[in-house]
Amino acid sequence: xxxxxxxxxxxxxxxxxxxxxxxxxxxxxxxxxxxxxxxxxxxxxxxxxxxxxxxxxxxxxxxxxxxxxxxxxxxxxxxxxxxxxxxxxxxxxxxxxxxxxxxxxxxxxxxxxxxxxxxxxxxxxxxxxxxxxxxxxxxxxxxxxxxxxxxxxxxxxxxxxxxxxxxxxxxxxxxxxxxxxxxxxxxxxxxxxxxxxxxxxxxxxxxxxxxxxx
Length: 214
Fold this sequence. Notes:
Helices cover about 70% and strands about 0% of the residues. It is mainly alpha-helical and about 210 residues long. Strands 1-2 form a two-stranded antiparallel ribbon. Strand 1 (about 70) and strand 2 form a beta hairpin. Helix 3 (about 80-95) runs parallel beside helix 5 (about 115-135) and helix 6 (about 140-170) packs across helix 8 (about 180-210).
């Protein structure tokens, strides 16, 4: 009578490979939002990121309406904190995000003060996009300081140029009169404005970035 022996099978290498592949796939999936709509990589659009962008846009819009004078020699020039929002967003999500918030954040003002809104958009772009580019290359506190200073310098230049070129079209002032205001009024006001933006952003950007990137 023939002895029956338990069959011995060799490990299935294909099954082992599939298991490893599935493990890697499951591991990778944890880092991808199931609702993502863009290509892979850190720049991926997701429902969470879109929601955060919308929150930043709304915050920039709201803060842009809260303006107050900070320079006694020119009380008609008002400061608003929206520039802090675009800087923080740029540090958290990069220059593209900074550009989006810089433009959309001032859209409501296009219906009431189109020239002023245009100036605000240009100045916000000049401030936030270069700052975000520098911080993306130098992701440290030193990089944040260099980015803020670089953006502030470009923001001041953009603000003065915009006032010289655009203001005469709607403020019933000659270009010569605006140019005469650069040193005594426009320059000190904008230096104060961007100094406030920079100091507040430096103090709050890290905890906010940590919170929204959890």
